[in-house]
Amino acid sequence: MPKWFEYIFNTPNYHRIQHAKKPQYLDRNHSSNFIIWDRLFDTFKQEIEKPIYGLVKNIYTY
What we know:
Distance between the termini: 41 Å
Order of helices and strands: HHH
Structural class: mainly alpha
Strand content: under 5%
Shape: elongated
Radius of gyration: 13 Å
Number of domains: 1
Largest sheet: none
Number of helices: 3
């Protein structure tokens, strides 16, 4: 994607962070279409290392 496009729109690269369970990625990249809102409200996080997906802690129920 062009750099200007990734600065404004939420791409799959940025959306992965939303589902990660590592502490550095918690509560980051909330936007659904425009990543510029996360940049403005300081909730944007660039992917540094590969995210691990799932729950932060298990719920131990069925």
